[in-house]
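For the sake of transparency, this paper describes our internal protein records without simplification. Because each token names a local backbone shape, the row as a whole describes the fold. One such record is reproduced below, unchanged from the form in which we store it.
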Amino acid sequence: MELGSILQFLENRTILVTGATGFLAKIFIEKILRVQPNVKKLYLLLRASDTNSAMLRFNTEIIGKDLFRVLKEKYGGDNYNYFNSFISEKIRVVAGDITRHDLGIINDDNLLQEMWHQIDVVVNLAATTNFDERYDVSLALNTLGAKLVFDFSKKCNKLKVFLHVSTAYVSGEKEGLILERPYKMGETLNGTRGLDIDEENQLVDATLTHLNHHNYSQEHIKSSMKDLGIQRAKKYGWPNTYVFTKAMGEMLLGQLVKEDQTVPLVIIRPTIVTSTYKEPFPGWVEGLRTIDSLAVGYGKGKITCFLGDPKSIVDVIPADMVVNAMIVAMAVHADQRYNNNNNKDNIIYHIGSSVSNPVEFKCLQDYGIRYFARKPWIDKNGNPVIVGHVIVLTSMATFQRYMALRYFLPLKGLEIANTVCCKYFQAVYLELNRKIKFVMRLVELYAPYLFFKGFYDDTNAEKLRRAANESGIKNETEMFCFDAKIINWDDYFTNTHIPGIVKHVFKNN
């Protein structure tokens, strides 16, 4: 594995980024523009009906974010015209849809021909990350969408590498050391036979036809499609729709690259992605990640207990390190096409920390308690929210007992009183019942990760790091660092990540 100058590789390159409004995509875009202003062009695919709608999304959801303030200072300062000119030269916003042929770019053959002629690198970041997304939506984006982006890439006659961002949790609930290996078509986690992606798509179509034929409400259809996704995932051993459809997306790509060896494929599997460690500045985050939901709930005084094994390892990795790994992998694997004699496993990279620098669940709890005890959240009335130690439920059995005593028994009593009093407490009963069902649904979705006993092998990622270190270009080694071993988790969570959540996420949740 050899690597020259990464900045030189990026120079004069044309890169297509799908899912450009996503968290990682924005950090990737900002990084490329900041470190290599001589990149030729970034085509940003945004889901939109037309160019005007796409530009509106670009201005509000991408370039208007605080993330880009360093870039604006570097290439404009107070001169917004200069910065806007720079962006106009380097970025082409494209309205499209990865669930459609040719990425939904219609009525513009000139644009398609231009893209196919110029694009050197395709970075597929388009996905839905909702654990219980509608099955039709998740299958279309995470599985079939990956194929359609690949099909588009095959038409790019200068293509050097196709980089697909998946998730480490395609592993499901495996225990022990989880290797950086691809999934074979139809492979399942529990050994159940019969997984066929075409048949899954047909099942989705048949289910939607049935529901629409019987004139069910859109809310009922939405709920039914969510349930179907969870059912199909669990049938084959995955805990939720998200990781199931991402795994099938990997299967499709693996099969396609064997059939058509003209496309160099790299798959990046990050673990739980957290706020930026260093670039463009520490602590930038957007949206709630799994563990951040706990921080928000605790800091605002809405969580009375934590559920999880205190000794379980929570595999987290800062977003800018994931992006650095993506860029290094692009440079290393450019023009490395698959052939039957290659070791196929070397295209999978776990980007995480559970092997090199593990952090225990109990530490995350301690970081949150210490931070909010020192800097309490101020509520809407201007009063500090006083938090303290919370009950830690270390197993599903203790959680179920806790829920029974604290919520299910009072709910049953309320149900009886409501019946005796001729539905006088109906509104209160329904609201409490709804909240309990919501909590139980969240626990069902997240429990596999709160008691996770796996460790993500990063042997391939370590080889990638060594290649970057041995390139001999010192400033690039630091510029594209993704070594979790350098992170002091105590300092990162208390002085970077949690403050970042408070600043960028709390006010919106």
